[in-house]
Amino acid sequence: MRQSAARAVAIRRAGTFLAYPERMAYEWITIDPARMRGLPCIRDTRVTVSAILGQLAAGQSAEEILAGYPYLERADILAVLEFAADAFQEHELPLALPA
To answer: Potential cystine with 49: which of 5, 18, 32, 40 (Cβ 3.0-4.6 Å)?
Structure first.
């Protein structure tokens, strides 16, 4: 794991079935109040989870994102997706009622 900032807090949660090493997202996604206003970031970079999710939502492929961020790896994008999926697990989202 490439963690250089001692103050970064790794988010961890056990028991998730993954196609890559268990708990990878929680080892690679960090939250540091002194970096990017405490938003979840990939490892100890300034690349936020929301930035990558936004690019995926806009239709960019993983390869296009990796070309724009050459210091990231495909596993970083998978960690972002896992983190986001777990963040919304079992949360109620407000939906518009039919008219």
So the answer is: 40
